[in-house]
Design goal:
The structure is a single chain. The protein has about 120 residues and is an alpha+beta fold. Strands 1-3-2 form a three-stranded antiparallel beta sheet. A hairpin with a 2-residue loop joins strand 2 and strand 3. The protein is globular.
């Protein structure tokens, strides 16, 4: 007997027109979430959840991914059983011009200065 077909896994993402500046800023205020965003930006390609270097457990990191996704900062999608993450750079730039690049630049400068 054939195994029943299952629907492809999908992840819900907000329309950025429905995301507030407050929500994005609250997502980016956390240093672990900024670290995730910085790693995605530096990688220049989509990254699977297990490839991030973070000072938290995987379950806590999952929470951080959810906050970033719900704020419209990242997009997540499945390839097989692997969940990949990508920055919504172009969409964020249209909705909040300069915000993401300013946060990334400030995070890099703070990291170079020995910040968190």
């Amino acid at each position: 007997m054939a195994r029943p077909r299952t629907a492809a896994r999908t992840v819900e993402h907000p329309d950025l027109s429905e995301v507030s500046l407050q929500q994005v800023l609250e997502a980016l205020v956390d240093p672990v979430r900024r670290l995730v965003v910085s790693q995605l930006d530096r990688a220049g390609e989509d990254m699977s959840c297990g490839t991030f270097e973070a000072p938290v457990s995987l379950s806590t990191l999952t929470h951080h991914f959810n906050v970033l996704r719900e704020a419209g900062v990242i997009r997540q999608y499945y390839v097989g059983t692997t969940k990949l993450n990508t920055l919504r750079t172009d969409e964020m730039e249209q909705r909040f011009p300069g915000l993401l690049s300013a946060v990334l630049a400030a995070s890099a400068a703070e990291g170079e200065a020995g910040g968190a």
